[in-house]
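[Solved] Which block belongs to which protein?

Original post:
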Amino acid sequence: MYWIHRSCRFNVDDMSATHFTEKDTREPVASPDLPTEANRDRRLSAALWCAGLATFALMYAPQGLLTQIGHDAAVSAAQASLLVSAATLGLALSVLPWARFSDRVGRPTAMRYAAAIAGLLAVAVPWLPTFEALVAGRFVQGVALGGLPALAMTLLHEVAVPARTAVLAGSYVAATSLGGLGGRLLVVPVADHLGWRPALAILGVGLAILMAVLIVLLPAGQGQRSTVPSSGSLAVHLRDVRLLALFGIGALLVGGMVAVFNYLPFRLEAAPYHLAPTVVSLILLAYLAGTAGSRAAGWLVGRLGHRTVLVLACTFMAGGTVLSLDGSLILILLGLAAVTAGLFVGHAVASGMVGAHATTGRAQATALYNVSYYAGSSLFGWVGGIAWASGHWAGVAVLVLVLTMLALVLAVLPKTNPPR
């Protein structure tokens, strides 16, 4: 499923899997100085876990604080959501430049630059004095973060053993779900005691440490560089119906989930629930369903096929949205878990399919997927505010259902999936 030229040699940590003694008849012996392919994959997996955790914690941490920030800055729900949308928009606009930069210097080197800049901004941005400055700072954060998810899947397909790419891709997406959960969950109780600015700054220090670990764990050297002109690759990808459908699926599904997470706190902190922000943040533990779903995505694809899993992902999101319309907190929680699981299963499958299908210009293809994914997050996360203002939670639910049904249509198109 995930094809890589077996004849390519990658200079990763200057390593080879095994070496032979002088006589060919003797058993291969693992080099004491050079890591095996399994060790290399474990190190790569750990690096991508750091990338997923740090990127998504930093990007979505303000989501759990939108009600507090909106009250403190005297802005509406839709305006407060710009702190999330600005970061995802900056990321969406930066992934193609990061991909082009990585073609020149190599994926690991580009990711190191992105991690270093993002780590510094994580500590500095929370102290910007005005709401407008915060929105601008969040946009710049997104630009820096664009070099991590934009290149993670590409590096994975270029470096990892082909048979393990599906599992490692699911593991990376699981890390993104844990990062999104941790960012939201950790800052809220700290903000209740110290305020939202110190809470975001403390989180930023922890994420800067994760970025430093990522820099150490990434493969040494420049890695593989592309010899295909970027503009030519982009044109080819934008004419590929299968890739365009996958881009659309990612944008629609993540847009629906971000709308849910942006405005659910406004619902639960108002009548008839009147839940405290810390209690609302605990409801976000439903995000763990995304972790489990993304880890299971590769296994499901191997048994059910891409199309079936994508259809299931869309169905889970739609069903969860309908459940959330009920007034019961238990059903709202179950609905939230279904929405989250659906998004991360769909994202893991769609992003992995993009990397596998684009055998040339893979960095540009995965960058285009990330442009679509985060543009959808930014756009529909903000549109959810309009839906909330006009119809409260029912308006948000209708928006999510429409987005999910559109994704389902793209998932069942014949050219969305590779031939059996």
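(Second protein starts here: sequence line, then its structure tokens.)
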Amino acid sequence: MFNSLIIIDNDYLKDSVDLVEVANQLAGTEESVVSGLGINLVDKEITGFDSLICVDLPDLQLKDSRVLTDIIQQVQQTYEFDSIIVLATDFGRMVAPRVAMRLKVGLVADITAIDTHQKERRLIRPAFSGNMLASIVCDSTPIMASVHPNVFHFQGTKQPTVSQFAINQLKPSSIEVLAITQEAGNQDIREAEVIVAAGAGYHADIADLNGIATKLKGAVAVSKPLVEQQRAPREIQVGQSGKTVSPHLYIALGIYGSMQHVEGLKNVKDIISVNTDEGAPLNYLANLVVIGDAVEFINKLTARLQEGT
């Protein structure tokens, strides 16, 4: 039997449930038993886990990674899970290494695949800026891994058994909330069915793509170089260090297609790659390849769409 613990992120419930697939793959040929650790899960309907370990602390500062680390440590000391899996959100990336250090184990961050052979478990992640894949053998317990949202998918309706966990005394949070600002209601690129994505080969203003993205009822995204050049915010970056997307249509404008970027594309139905470089790796993944300037392509596509209105 292989017991796994998944840390449930209240802001990403569906993505947290998807991590059950990670736990099942880690189990390999052993029976997989998956528990979710939920904090203040008031009136939230969650299925797919074998059990839910609930911690109810209404006054808890959930965004303090040190407090959450204390809770996870207490739960692990009680149940002794074989693996602990964390969603690699901005907050999860603060929690996971703290927990790993507290438990004196290693952490494999941003995994994209799992390989189990007999009882050897290998966690696979991009390395060297996405230029190669590293296969990491995990022989410590618990195995700790973080996973990007939308990389793995799980469909399950199992009703979990629910138990309450009594936390020992916690140190008070040192974080003070000074203000809360509501973010603009822009579409999350992970939810878009059509994505118009620009890379280093797209030399016009990224904002110019908003019109055609709206026309296609989609969203604008970018590759890593444009974020590094400060031409676009990281919130719309696709790739291993950005977000993982699964649109029906992905229009790649001047995107070379490094492994780091390709790892951000999961279950994409159709890819149109526009590039002046015939040998761009993304061209070999695309359903349709256009050899030419990306800006010229967008201008002509925009004109053609306007003719159809």
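Accepted answer:
You had them paired correctly. Confirming on the second one: The chain has a mean pLDDT of 90.
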